[in-house]
Structure formats: structure tokens, C-alpha cells
Amino acid sequence: MKGLTVRWSLADAEAGVEERLAAYVADSSHARFTGMEGLAYKTWRMRPGEWFEGCYVFESDEARAAFQASFEETAAESPGSQIIGSPPVQVEPCDVVAIAEGAAGFTPAARA
């Protein structure tokens, strides 16, 4: 499996950006990625005042490469960049070695 991490810095973002990002994910982004061809799953992570990121796992290198190329063309204008006020500081491909599902299970949700 092939991974991709896209991270934005929140260090210089306006106050309240975390709630706007959470609303964007719940209202729009979650639905956009649900069922996306070639994508195994995506998580959105945030450390308030520090960073916001999307973590993607794709079924193949080709699926990841196609998404990454498309994203990088418009990264500065992406919804996350518009909300935060700056483009991503990192776009990093990686290999996903393994995924384990714990006893609590996995429930896809637009907002935790």
C-alpha cells in the first residue's frame, strides 16, 4: 500500500481556523473522499495551533502518483489552503507497511 501525507502549518493561521477546518471536513471533504477510486482510506489529523494534515492510503503506486500530481497542481488554491491562508508545507509519499484494526473496530465518520 502506498501512503501520502499532506501537512499545513497552523502557526500563523487566524484564530478559529481549527473549527473552520473541522466543519469543512464534515460538510464537504469527507464526502469527496468516501468511495474514491484507488483510495483505501483517508484520515484528517490536527494539532491545534501547530498543524493540520491529510493522511491517505492508496491501493497502488499509480493511484497515489496520480492523486499527488493532481493535488500538487492546485495545492495553493485547495480548500485547506484557502481556509488556512497558506499552501501545504509538506507533501510526502511513503510506504504503508501494515494496518491493524483494533478490537474497538473502525467506523467511518465525518466528525469524531
Description of the molecule:
It is a single chain. This protein is of the alpha+beta class and 112 residues long. The protein has one domain (2-95): Alpha-Beta Plaits (2-Layer Sandwich). It contains 3 helices and 4 strands, in the order βαββααβ. The chain has a 4-stranded antiparallel β-sheet. It is globular. The mean pLDDT is 94. This is Monooxygenase.
* Class from helix and strand fractions: alpha+beta
Going across the major beta sheet, what is the strand order?
2-3-1-4
CATH architecture: 2-Layer Sandwich
The third-level CATH topology is Alpha-Beta Plaits
Largest sheet: 4 strands, antiparallel
Q: What does the overall shape look like?
A: globular
Radius of gyration: 14 Å
Number of helices: 3
Number of domains: 1
The rounded distance between the terminal residues' Cα atoms is 25 Å
